[in-house]
Amino acid sequence: AKVGAPDNTIDGEREARDGGWLLASSTRLPSEAHLAALWRALAGDARLRSPARQAASKLPTSDPRLAEVQRALGERSKAAASFWQAMRAAEAKMAWSKVAHFGLRARAAAGGNGTPEDCLTLAGALGILGRYDEALEMLGGCDAGAGSVASARVTERKAWILGRRGDPEAARRLLEEALAKLPADGDDVLLLRSRLARMLVSGGHYAE
Predict the structure, then answer these.
(1) Is 72 helix (H, G, I), strand (E, B) or coil?
(2) CB neighbours of 53 closer than 8 A, spacing ≥ 6?
(3) Dihedral angle over CA of 69, 72, 77, 81, nearest 10
(4) What is the DSSP letter of 112?
(5) What is the pLDDT along the chain (208 residues), one digit of tens a residue?
(6) If you write DSSP's letter for every residue of 29-59 in order, what string do you get?
(7) How far apart are alpha carbons 156 and 151 in whole angstroms?
């Protein structure tokens, strides 16, 4: 910068701090509401798109900020893929509220349920958070076309959520009906029998 010329970077930062847009001790935004406002501004202001794209290019694929920038730029399919990546990273840390948030953002970005594994992960997170109706709706859309084991996993998760919601009889019926349609052994049968056994024990039906 020329000597005596105003430093617009410093002036802009000072204005942002004075306006409550930056924390006093860092360059972080103070709340999720501020962050949401930033993404809305990015979507509506063409002048912000080039610097945002440049900054986002340096972020890892599992960083949810990359997904938000892609969504604001109208790259909805890319945004969905990045949100699913962020969800998987959150799952590895067992950060279930973030799993649910990023998974739902992925669905909102481009529709669809991701992979069958993504679908089960998101439904499981919603169940852990007590959002049972949303979890059951999610499971209803899970793709069970990958084979009987995938179908059994969807059924097992439905039964688990029904049990958590306080409807163990519905869960039991679901499991017993599914087991009646399956061979006598195999991984899918073991999965469903294990869930049924846990439900019977928790309900005091020890002999069964």
Answers:
(1) helix
(2) 69, 73
(3) 30
(4) S
(5) 444 444 445 566 666 666 555 666 666 665 677 667 767 777 777 787 788 888 888 899 899 999 989 998 889 999 999 999 999 999 999 999 999 999 999 999 987 888 889 999 999 999 999 999 999 999 988 855 455 457 889 999 999 999 999 999 999 999 999 999 888 888 889 999 999 999 887 766 655 5
(6) -SSHHHHHHHHHHHHH-GGGHHHHHHHHTTS
(7) 9
The CA distances from residue 163 to 24, 147, 166, 189, 206, in Å, are 47, 25, 5, 19, 17
Handedness of CA 60, 61, 67, 71 (dihedral sign): positive
Give 3-state DSSP helix, strand, coil % of the chain, rounded to 5.
Answer: 70, 0, 30
**Position 88, amino acid:** R
Token pair listed for 177: 């009906």
